[in-house]
Give the backbone structure.
Amino acid sequence: MEYLLSIIIFFPLLAGLAVFALEDRVAKFFGASCATIELVLVLALWVGFDSGSSSVQFENLLMLIPAFGISYHIGVDGISLALILLNAIVILLSVLFLHGKSPASHFVACLLLLESILMGVFSAQNVVLFYVFWELSLLPILYMIGVWGSGEKLRAALQFFLYTFFASLIMLLGILYYGFLFFLHSKQFSFELADWLAMPLPASYQLWLFLAFFIAIAVKIPIIPFHAWLPHAYGNAPTLGSVVLSALLLKMGTYALVRFCLPLFPDASIELSLWILVLGLVMIIYGAMVAYAQTDMKQVVAYSSISHMGVVVLGIFSFTLIGISGAVFMMFAHGIVGAALFMLVGIFAARTGSREIGSIQGVARAAPVFCAIFGVVVMANVGLPLTIGFVGEFLSLLGIFATYPLIALLGGLTIILSAAYMLSLYKRLFFGKEADEQKLAKFTDVNRREKLVLGIFSACIIALGIYPKPLLTLIDSGVKPVLETMAARAQVSSSKILLTTLASKQDRALDQIKSFDLMGEYSAEMLDSTQAIESSQLESSPAQQSTPLLLGE
């Protein structure tokens, strides 16, 4: 078990390189077998993981450049393990779903290589190692869009690469500067995340470093207005390219918020939280409105992803255990639901030659199984109770309610707005009256391969919607240390007050929700807390908030 995590990272890499040498008819079977083995290894990692421990587990450390503190250092906590599990599930089902791509061996190789890289992203404990994996993740998806995409595929691939690559260079500058600050503090270089967390960082430094990380992350998620690459990339990518973009690559951004921005820059995170929460609301409302206006089903799902990731942003910047745990759970849930939706759209396009919503109607009569599965996934995307989509949305909004009740109320519009555009699409597609009966007769129901893949997605949607406890317990074990680290590293007294009082405010908010008294005493207590925070800010002198790092301190 000592090297299990390293095996999980490098096994898909070796399999992906080997599959290049195989014929297409063998490549898919080989890829599916390797992806299945990978999922079994991840499940074994979960079984061996101690959810009662808050420390990083399954660590491996190998110094690469000791003079500069660069190492191969990996390990997992509950947050990492949840996303590693999502990665293994989505890649396996993508390989099983793969059909009609030539050369198939190259496409399977791209999926396996991407799986290996993302395993590294979610387990890296050295910040330079994380950055290397972060940038490498661009290559497989760039190849997918450029080779197997449609329309202006080369333009879409280049735009996606340039946006994400140059934004990530800003994060690289932040990483290098943080390493230099550590050198000033400790007389040696280190890019170990644990070392950085052990070094106090004045609030004046936190703001600029936070922005350096946040810009790269905002492009990856993407947070509006950094989303210009998304319509072209999703619209021109092949079906499975859109699947991995939505289900996996978007999660890299929100994962980085929780893993780096919150614990490394707690004061800056709190200082800018209101602005970021407003951007989250814009994502929710703008994404839903634009999704409703689309006639291309793929674009509907793409803009729906922006809207749902807005809820994740709200949960993360609630700074509460419930909110952040709900946000991480929603990352997992959106990965499952988004992947299934893009596959369903791909099936529809393969049968009709079009992704337009009005291209055919009344599909329920010709393909009842397809209709039923599509309905389950749509309900999960809407956030229907007892589906996986409801759990993450509810917990994220409940977490932000403890801090900003009004923002939680506005964020709840995602349920109404998503119901508007998804149910409208579903009604027009499956229950409209088709004038051309011959066209409808040619629409075949899902085959065995599609039933298997979509059946597994549906099972995950329902099972984790009814009983989310195993995954939530896993996630909670990783979120608690993040909040504890934030409280310990906060340099500004108002940040410390906020972080130490939010847990009790959250409990009181839950009591108010149970009694349906959302104003009254709770509002008064929130006002008292706000006044206390403002008073502490006045008491904090500017010199305390901008103390420079001194050599040897």
